[in-house]
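Thread: "does anyone have the structure for this chain?"

Original post by V.I.:
We have the sequence but no experimental structure in hand. Need at least a predicted one for the grant figures.
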Amino acid sequence: MLVGVSTPRLSHTSYLVLGLVAGMGPVTPYELKQMVNASLGCFWSFPHSQLYSEPERLAGLGLLDVEQEDAGRRRKRYSVTAAGREVLLAWLRDPDAERAEIREPGLLKLFFGALADDEDMTRLAQARVKLYQQELDQYAEMEKAIKDEPDMRYPYATLRLGISWAHACLAFWTELADQQAAGEQRLPCVSASLLI
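Reply from O.Q.:
Generated one for you, tokens below.
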């Protein structure tokens, strides 16, 4: 921990950056962005501009080291410090987790659906069905790549929850789209068994 300094306030993005840098070794913000896009970005949404600003902030706190190229593009490469690893491990050891955030943009529109035409909600449901089917296709490809890799068991567990979530969302939006098309007034309720 930082000696003589109060514990810095870290966000979920801070821990995401610390974890990726600790796991990947020295990386540029662009490489962080590529890794997020290929993994956690599927399940954890945040402005990717933070992947450029947060490493610099963490370096200022002494949690990351930074080396800048002398010539060329003068890219910065970040690596985790002993203090950064200590902060990351303390966070990982803490079993407490905050309440889950659900930020499904379609749900926000659906909540205000009475202010729109039924056709708008039908189109919304159909678009969400397409989106979740595409996500499931993408997750299937990811699953093939990491399923049997022993070092990927925790990312794979994360992916499995993402797959369950996408299946539940797909079932919900499919039922809503079907009901809307049939002119039914009741709204769908996804069975808890779909989440298992």
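V.I.: this helps a lot. Residues 153-182 form the longest helix (30 residues).
O.Q.: and The first strand starts at residue 64 and ends at 68.
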